[in-house]
Design goal:
Elements (H helix, E strand, L loop, with lengths): L4 H13 L21 E5 L2 E4 L4 E4 L14 H11 L11 H12 L5 E5 L2 H16 L3 E5 L25 E4 L4 H11 L3 E6 L15 H13 L3 E5 L22 E4 L10 E5 L4 H6 L10 H16 L2 H23 L3 E4 L6 E4 L6 H12 L2 E2 L14 H21 L7 H7 L2
Parallel strand pairs: 3-13, 5-6, 5-7, 7-8, 8-9
Antiparallel strand pairs: 1-2, 2-3, 4-10, 9-10, 11-12
Helix pairs in contact: 2-8, 3-8, 5-6, 9-11, 10-11
């Protein structure tokens, strides 16, 4: 029987010593009621909360779990490297091995720099774009997520106007809006940021068409600015290369994170020779950026990416998940939209302006052992099997039945409505 007594007690303790009880993207403040905050075990496709409830996890730690939690080959590489050297006075030779491996795999890249988080990588990209020709303005799509730095955080508390004085916004996927933004830069254009696909929170998600991507490339070239693809979320989940390679457009810089170490803390910025001198000029560092253990994990993860059919398996599983949800919704007479790449699915419900149906559905699935998100894109991983999908669809089928029977009693998500202006 599902229960959350220990989780509730931990939350009460956390409110006394952690601002807000929890912070950042892993806070469950926007998740359905009773969503567990604390976990004690992760293995393969499953996570176990502090009360012992086990879930098939479609959030994958918000992305880092690419191959399965505690993948044995990656963990052997971690254990072996831990016995030698990790964070030290200088990096291990693995930093060169890893840079060579990344450069060999990413078509646009001639060099690599490593850090810890996606926000580190996008911040470096911003600095390099400005150092490239000494210009200041950067173009960013409205509602696009590029991390938690003052220039990019989606929440304005603690941010002053000066932090974003040189950020110009445009509509993602709209070539004319992008052209207008370039005009607004008035000759001071440093760079154009692009997410690999539209993944706004609470919105339908889709890959961009080639026209938009090519316009971004052409405008960057015309104005001698750098084109930056933020592949932190989608990297190695759509293709084995930079995601925009799949639509035939190469950036100057690409930011990577989440999956590189299959859960070990490492991210990267990749760049071409056009941006090399600017990259050598900026000062960017961190006490743990050069640690060897995450680099060993990344090298093994990249080997698996190159040598196995992990990606094809993920696409197959993602399609089975999406097809199953669509079929269940159709059979029961509830309208849903499953958008985004198959490996990064987004689920929304039709006729659900206050999000009560989606939140009720995810809560019902969670009580049956499947962890879904009602507002963020989800993730598949290479450890997922047909059995996992069958068990998932058993839970979601029951969840559809529950919300159909109890729709009138479902409660609206007031916090989400406030965020979206609904």
């Amino acid at each position: 029987m599902w229960n959350n007594a220990k989780d509730r007690m931990l939350r009460e303790r956390a409110t006394e010593v952690i601002p807000g009880g929890m912070y950042g993207h892993q806070s469950v403040a926007l998740m359905p009621e009773d969503t567990p905050q604390f976990f004690i075990k992760a293995e393969g496709t499953r996570i176990t909360d502090v009360d012992g409830n086990v879930y098939i996890d479609f959030m994958c730690a918000y992305g880092p779990n690419l191959l399965g939690y505690n993948h044995p080959d990656v963990m052997r590489a971690v254990s072996d490297q831990q016995s030698r050297i990790d964070a030290s006075t200088g990096p291990s030779p693995l930093i060169v091995d890893l840079a060579e491996a990344m450069v060999s795999m990413i078509s646009h890249a001639d060099w690599a720099m490593f850090c810890k988080n996606g926000s580190d990588a996008t911040m470096m990209a911003l600095m390099i774009a400005r150092a490239y020709r000494g210009k200041r303005k950067v173009l960013v799509a409205r509602k696009a997520y590029h991390g938690s730095m003052p220039w990019s955080t989606p929440r304005p508390a603690g941010v002053v106007d000066e932090d974003r004085a040189h950020v110009i916004y445009f509509d993602y996927g709209d070539p004319q809006s992008l052209k207008d933004a370039v005009v607004s830069a008035d000759g001071d254009l440093a760079g154009i940021f692009a997410t690999p696909y539209r993944h706004d929170v609470f919105a339908d998600q889709s890959m961009p068409d080639r026209e938009y991507a090519q316009v971004a490339r052409d405008l960057a070239d015309e104005h001698d600015a750098l084109l930056i693809v933020d592949d932190v979320r989608a990297g190695f989940r759509v293709t084995r290369d930079c995601t925009w390679e799949s639509i035939g457009v190469r950036p100057d810089l690409s930011a990577w994170g989440k999956v590189l170490g299959n859960g070990q803390p490492i991210s990267a910025l990749m760049g071409n020779n056009r941006a090399r001198d600017a990259a050598s000029q900026i000062y960017a560092t961190g006490s743990y950026w050069f640690a060897a253990v995450p680099m060993a994990a990344a090298l093994e993860t990249l080997r698996i990416i190159r040598e196995t059919k992990y990606l094809e398996d993920m696409h197959r599983i993602g399609k089975a998940f999406r097809d199953g949800l669509n079929a269940q919704a159709k059979d029961i007479g509830i309208g849903v939209r499953c958008t985004g790449p198959e490996t990064l699915p987004m689920l929304q419900f039709e006729d659900d302006p206050d999000f009560r149906v989606c939140y009720g559905f995810c809560r019902a699935a969670m009580k049956r052992g499947v962890y879904l998100s009602p507002y963020h894109n989800m993730f598949t991983n290479a450890a997922m099997t047909e059995t996992d999908i069958a068990q998932t669809l058993e839970a979601t089928g029951a969840a559809f039945e529950e919300i159909k029977s109890n729709r009138a009693s479902l409660q609206p998500s007031t916090k989400v409505m406030a965020m979206t202006g609904s």
